[in-house]
């Protein structure tokens, strides 16, 4: 008998800063709009650094540890959790050997899957059992029992599809406004969005807080900073040109966002990038202070 074809690609990264393998799979088409990127599994064998730098982004992170554990700004994290949106960067510490499933949900995907007002978990990390009840605990058990990456991704897809089918649908105005922010890489003004929708800023703000997790102006800022990250990871360029291309008033405003959202200067951020992966080393970055 022939083995079933795998849908998962294994990508091995090995260089002087470490060695790890990524398991990547294109998700089921029914999950289109729910996931911010492909399904991802991660196995780290070694690293010359002890932490990752995680600038905030307009996506919900869901992690299930398979080996080892991680911490957030020095505080140990549970072994299965989902994090709300935030404007703060984080320093994520990890064990020398570490493996996990690492998902990123779109805000409206998180709204449908979680089925609760997303402002309630702003800046918070909640366990999957707290988020989903007994089904969250069963999900973690099934993922640990699965024999390989394809089996784990199958479990995740079934869970997410079932949750989304039973969950709430986003308000059309919120879906349109969020799509417009992504299309303009965060440059569209909130006044313009409200005017085009024929609603008040107050209404749009309230619905975004409920179904996205942050105010539209804040979400636009995270999307704009994400566009900067994609540009510097693709190819080097003059910072003034990047600032202009990404809708910043000038280079000083871009530098301010790096300090506030990444805890570093633009130049230092580039030196922290990990080749081939897009991750960022966190050693030496100060923890966020409340």
Mean pLDDT: 94
The SS-based structural class is alpha+beta
Q: Enumerate the strands of the largest sheet in spatial order, edge to edge or round the barrel.
A: 1-2-3-10-5-8-11
Radius of gyration: 19 Å
Explain what the structure shows:
The protein has 290 residues and is α+β, with helices and mostly antiparallel strands. It has 2 domains: 8-166, Jelly Rolls, CATH 2.60.120.10; 172-255, Arc Repressor Mutant, subunit A (Orthogonal Bundle), CATH 1.10.10. 41% of the residues lie in helices and 21% in strands. The strands form 2 sheets. The chain has a 7-stranded antiparallel β-sheet with strand order 1-2-3-10-5-8-11. It starts with 7 loop residues before the first strand and ends in an 18-residue tail after the last helix. The model has no long low-confidence stretch (mean pLDDT 94).
């Amino acid at each position: 008998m022939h083995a079933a074809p795998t849908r998962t690609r294994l990508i091995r990264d090995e260089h002087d800063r470490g060695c790890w393998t990524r398991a990547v799979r294109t998700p089921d088409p029914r999950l289109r709009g729910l996931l911010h990127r492909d399904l991802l599994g991660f196995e780290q064998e070694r690293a010359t650094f002890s932490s990752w730098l995680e600038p905030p982004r307009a996506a919900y992170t869901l992690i299930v540890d398979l080996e080892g554990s991680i911490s957030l700004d020095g505080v140990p994290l549970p072994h299965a959790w989902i994090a709300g949106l935030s404007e703060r960067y984080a320093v994520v510490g990890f064990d020398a050997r570490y493996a996990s499933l690492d998902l990123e949900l779109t805000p409206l995907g998180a709204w449908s899957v979680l089925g609760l007002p997303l402002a309630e978990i702003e800046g918070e990390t909640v366990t999957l059992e707290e988020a989903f009840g007994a089904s969250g605990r069963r999900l973690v058990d099934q993922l640990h029992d699965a024999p390989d990456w394809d089996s784990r991704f199958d479990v995740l897809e079934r869970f997410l599809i079932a949750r989304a089918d039973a969950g709430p649908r986003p308000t059309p105005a919120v879906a349109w406004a969020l799509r417009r922010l992504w299309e303009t890489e965060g440059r569209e003004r909130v006044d313009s969005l409200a005017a085009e929708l024929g609603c008040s800023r107050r209404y749009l703000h309230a619905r975004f807080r409920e179904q996205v997790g942050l105010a539209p102006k804040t979400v636009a800022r995270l999307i704009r900073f994400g566009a900067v990250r994609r540009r510097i990871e693709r190819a080097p360029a003059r910072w003034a040109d990047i600032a202009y291309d990404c809708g910043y008033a000038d280079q000083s405003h871009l530098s301010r966002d790096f300090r506030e959202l990444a805890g570093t200067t633009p130049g230092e951020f580039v030196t922290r990038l990990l080749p081939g992966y897009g991750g960022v080393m966190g050693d030496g970055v100060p923890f966020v202070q409340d």
